[in-house]
Amino acid sequence: MSIGSGRRPGRVAVIGVGVLGASVAWNLSRQGADVVLIDARRPGEGVTNWSFAWVNASNKTVRKSYFDLNVAGMAAHRELATAIGPDSWWYPSGHLRWADDPAGATQLLERAELLANWGYRVEVLTAAEARRLEPALVMPGEVPVVLYPDEAWVHGRHLVGRLVGQAVAAGAGLRPGCAVCDIGTGSDGGVRTVVLSDGTRLDVDIVVNAAGPSASEVAALVARQLPMRREPGVVTRVGCVQVPIDRVMHAPRIEIRPDGDASVVLHSREIDALIDAGEEVSELARMLHELARNVVPALGDSHIAETRVAHRPIPADGFPSVGAVPSVPGYYEAVSHSGITLGPVIGRLLAAEIVSGKRDAMLADFRPERFAMPTGGR
Ligand SMILES: Cc1cc2nc3c(=O)[nH]c(=O)nc-3n(C[C@H](O)[C@H](O)[C@H](O)COP(=O)(O)OP(=O)(O)OC[C@H]3O[C@@H](n4cnc5c(N)ncnc54)[C@H](O)[C@@H]3O)c2cc1C
User: Fold this and answer.
1) Alpha carbon nearest to ligand 1 atom 2, residue
2) CA of 19, closest atom in ligand 1
């Protein structure tokens, strides 16, 4: 069922208020839909707050349609910044990446060439040119450095706060601190109610599953199997008197970005690989901090402020699951890794689908139906 399918306008429950749920709800509420946002905790404090939050398509070349969706995600961020104002969440300062071994450098330059052929803006700098942009960096003298000038980073929690504030001002309801623990369906299998952990039962016509890493549990409430990968990552926030870098960057072993005026965020795939080996979280944080100080010595007197292991919300084949599930009328999914990059575009496309009933071709490869319902589902 969709609002535009000829039936009375429906009430939409958005389950999960991270970047994806907030983006869907913001788009729906500005089109006059009756929306209620429900979150088990506080909006924006899920994986959205523990993300490296790099807005990019340069790391998404695995499939052209996925790359195109991420390019559309970058454009949607720029439009959103105009619509809601950029302050405190949108940092379009570009992205630097370099490698310190010949094989890595070759790979970097091949990727840059592919992206340039796809019309993506990329510049190849010398190390000296890169250091003029980022004087605090230590990097080998002769390495090529790639600058992607249209990439950015986002403060996820602040973005969610802004979107939720505007949705509520436009009339949306907000239920923080309430988990959805059941979804009731009618005799046609369509969505009718959601039941919250405080015992409230809400009559709804549509639910959007935007529960991030818990999306398969919410899908199970309508007897749907949404297979997800297990892919944890560890992120550390480091406090410093003055932030010594201006942009998001990938050094060979560590990823670093600013996080406002007095902190820096650190992440590394190499350190993520130690999570399941049972390493203490405090030790993972210490290693991240050490790797970062090797690249940015000015972080020498910074301190580890907070660290969290978070789970990437990744459907099993690695791609987003977005749109209606026709076998459960009224049930929609908005589940994706790279959700910081994709939130605004997924929010816009899914809200349009809910309101008009029309399916956008851009989502053709990312439809929930590719994960079939088990036989006997309700
Ligand atoms: C280490 C790491 C690095 C990353 N780096 C990047 C990056 O550089 N760029 C990028 O684009 N993406 C990145 N991502 C991915 C990105 O952070 C996520 O795709 C995105 O934040 C997902 O947002 P979400 O709204 O789906 O989930 P969340 O922010 O987790 O929101 C889901 C919400 O649902 C709520 N919820 C769950 N179950 C229920 C229920 N039953 N009832 C009510 N509420 C419920 C939760 O409380 C939560 O608030 C990274 C992720 C990780 C872990």
Assistant:
1) 51
2) 25
